[in-house]
Write a structure and sequence with these properties.
Blueprint lengths: L1 H15 L13 H10 L8 E9 L10 E9 L8 E6 L9 H12 L2 E6 L20 H21 L8 E6 L1 H10 L8 E5 L5 H8 L5 H16 L7 H7 L13 H12 L5 H8 L1 H7 L7 E6 L8 H10 L9 E5 L8 E2 L2 E2 H14 L2
Parallel strand pairs: 3-4, 3-5, 5-6, 6-7, 7-8
Antiparallel strand pairs: 1-2, 2-4, 9-10
Helix pairs in contact: 3-13, 9-10
Length: 366
């Protein structure tokens, strides 16, 4: 089975004109691959960018609220042609300011795509425009975003007279891919193509993975970001949430001490789930895709086998199951031996960014 999988992976890469991934010094190993964008930055060309705000409704747990998500539209330099519009989503605790996202956006712009970089509910750039925080399934936020993105792609079509129709693609980094998957399972026509990079498919499996002792520092960093984002909500938070998030003066501890407890006390109730178990079960794309045989737009899953955060087994199982679904054979999987969590830093730059650009270009020509 392993030989067969590798053959398919290399065959797809060959079709895209890309060589298999190889790490480059000094970013050797899953942790340095994962952390590279924290330690090093890339010189990126200036882009023509404009701010866009998208109205979203209140959280499911609240009768009032809501507001606007903030996105940034980056345009390619060409005024004669364009290859498509890509909606790009960040991962857990991230925003459009994260280096990995800005570099991927730059690579897409250099490949003549327009890119709509979205800040999810609660991330820093839109903290003052909408209350609450996002979840792995936040379709009430994403459906308005996808509809607005389609409007933008139609507007771009009218601007670029040489193009009959500008396709709308989606790319999600880590949890961003999970969020896009959940939205597309409602209506696969929302996107013309999708890429999920290091994206959790089974949230319970990922929670267990991040709680391993070797991931202590990762979980602490992610948890601190989530707690800070939640406490800094200018619209306020519920008293029970505040008690769970703040350190108790008596025992110097807080109720929330890992990602699972954060999701149990904050994420799940905010998005209408009774507890974290129901949230993880219903918001994990793996189960909906397998049990309900939900359809997707043409989707590429990119996953490293040494990812310290997201185990690749769920993606491997999904690939094996999809072989027997007539409506899912267009979906592709690329597994690499190395690469960490959304790392893929190779000898010619970020290999993952190159794969994403080439995949969307291949869909444009179909």
């Amino acid at each position: 089975m392993e030989v067969k999988d590798n053959f398919k992976r290399e065959d797809l890469l060959s079709d895209l004109g890309i060589r298999p991934f190889k790490e480059r010094l000094p970013w050797i190993g899953p942790d340095l691959q994962t952390l590279r964008d924290t330690f090093a930055s890339d010189a990126l060309p200036d882009v023509n960018s404009s701010e866009i705000r998208i109205n979203v409704p209140p959280l499911k747990s609240r009768k009032t609220g809501g507001g606007s998500l903030v996105a940034y539209l980056d345009r390619p330099s060409s005024v004669f042609s364009i290859n498509g519009l890509v909606l790009l989503l960040h991962g857990l605790g991230g925003s459009t300011r994260r280096r990995g996202l800005t570099r991927m956006a730059s690579a897409l712009v250099q490949s003549n795509f327009a890119v709509l970089k979205l800040n999810l509910r609660g991330s820093d750039p839109c903290r003052n425009f909408v209350d609450g925080t996002y979840a792995a399934e936040c379709n009430s936020d994403l459906i308005p975003v996808l509809k607005r993105a389609r409007e933008i792609s139609n507007q771009l079509t009218s601007e670029y007279k040489s193009v009959k129709r500008i396709p709308l693609f989606g790319a999600g980094i880590s949890l961003g891919g999970t969020i896009l998957l959940n939205a597309c399972m409602c209506d696969k026509s929302l996107l013309d193509g999708l890429v999920c990079i290091s994206s959790p498919l089974d949230l319970n499996e990922c929670s267990t993975s991040i709680e391993r002792p070797r991931n202590f520092i990762y979980q602490k960093w992610l948890l601190n970001r989530l707690i800070r984002q939640t406490l800094e909500d200018p619209f306020g938070i519920e008293e029970r949430e505040k008690k769970a998030l703040l350190i108790n003066k008596r025992d110097k501890k807080r109720k929330i001490n890992n990602i699972r407890s954060f999701d149990d006390l904050i994420t799940a109730p905010r998005w209408g789930y009774k507890d974290v178990d129901e949230y993880y079960a219903k918001a994990s794309p793996f189960f909906s895709l397998i049990k309900n045989k939900k359809s997707l737009p043409k989707t590429l899953f990119i996953q490293s086998k040494d990812d310290p955060w997201v185990p690749f087994l769920a993606a491997k199982k999904l690939m094996e199951k999809m072989k027997f679904y007539n409506n899912q054979k267009a979906n592709k999987f690329i597994f690499t031996q190395k690469g960490g969590h959304n790392g893929f830093h190779g000898v010619h730059g970020c290999w993952g960014d190159q794969v994403v650009s080439k995949w969307f270009l291949s869909l444009k020509t179909i």
